[in-house]
Task: inverse folding
């Protein structure tokens, strides 16, 4: 599945190499040469993952990562730090507080892609192509198929994204605002009521196999995908 990746790297040759490889792998690549440019791009469009060079002119990569972690809008965006081989071990030890992973230069395109995939799988599973199976319901982003108890189900594109988001984060409650940000996209201005409309359509599409029961309304909080519907009765 295609992700939007922001590459913050001041060395043009490295930035170019990364951009070419990730574009070739089907990702959308945004490029910044310093923290200021990075922040401008982030303000315009929230990336799915950020590759951040440690040594940048002006504000360092680590400092930018700390800023992003403090900001409500960017705190959950996965960050992979790019570090030089000369970096001290003790510096790298502190990295886990700001970055999800780090990769040491020079790295191969294959290694970079493997790291990106691993970080996305952990932090943003809705962006991967992995098939998800829960309680007899299967969703496959690669083939765009949904099957409930062996029966193919027909979902519209928004309902498909919504179900995929739910199934990659089962049991968790998502507010309408969170669903709009995550499923419809950041900076997309849609009324919260729209979410309810698509939840209704999603339930209708899942009805033939009875999986509509798994999409639960949590009063005053939002919606969730529940593997065993009904078990949580009386707790909310
Ligand atoms: Ca650099």
Result:
């Amino acid at each position: 599945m295609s992700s939007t990746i922001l590459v913050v790297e001041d060395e043009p040759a490295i930035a170019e190499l990364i951009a070419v490889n990730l574009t070739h792998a089907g990702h959308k690549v945004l490029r910044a040469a310093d923290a200021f440019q990075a922040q401008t791009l982030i303000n315009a469009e929230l990336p799915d993952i950020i590759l951040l060079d440690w040594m940048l002119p002006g504000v360092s990569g680590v400092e930018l990562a700390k800023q992003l972690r403090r900001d409500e809008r960017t705190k959950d965006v996965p960050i992979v730090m790019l570090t030089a081989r000369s970096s001290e071990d003790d510096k790298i030890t502190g990295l886990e507080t700001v970055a999800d992973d780090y990769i040491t230069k020079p790295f191969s395109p294959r290694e970079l892609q493997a790291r990106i995939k691993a970080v996305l799988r952990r932090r943003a599973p809705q962006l991967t192509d992995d098939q998800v199976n829960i309680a007899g319901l299967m969703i496959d982003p690669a083939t765009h198929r949904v099957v409930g108890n062996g029966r193919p189900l027909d979902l519209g594109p928004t309902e498909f994204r919504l179900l995929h988001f739910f199934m990659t984060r089962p049991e968790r409650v998502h507010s309408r605002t969170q669903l709009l940000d995550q499923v419809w996209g950041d900076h997309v201005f849609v009324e919260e009521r729209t979410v309810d409309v698509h939840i209704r359509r999603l339930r209708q599409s899942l009805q033939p196999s009875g999986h509509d029961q798994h999409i639960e309304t949590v009063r005053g909080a939002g919606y969730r995908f529940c593997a065993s519907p009904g078990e949580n009765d009386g707790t909310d």
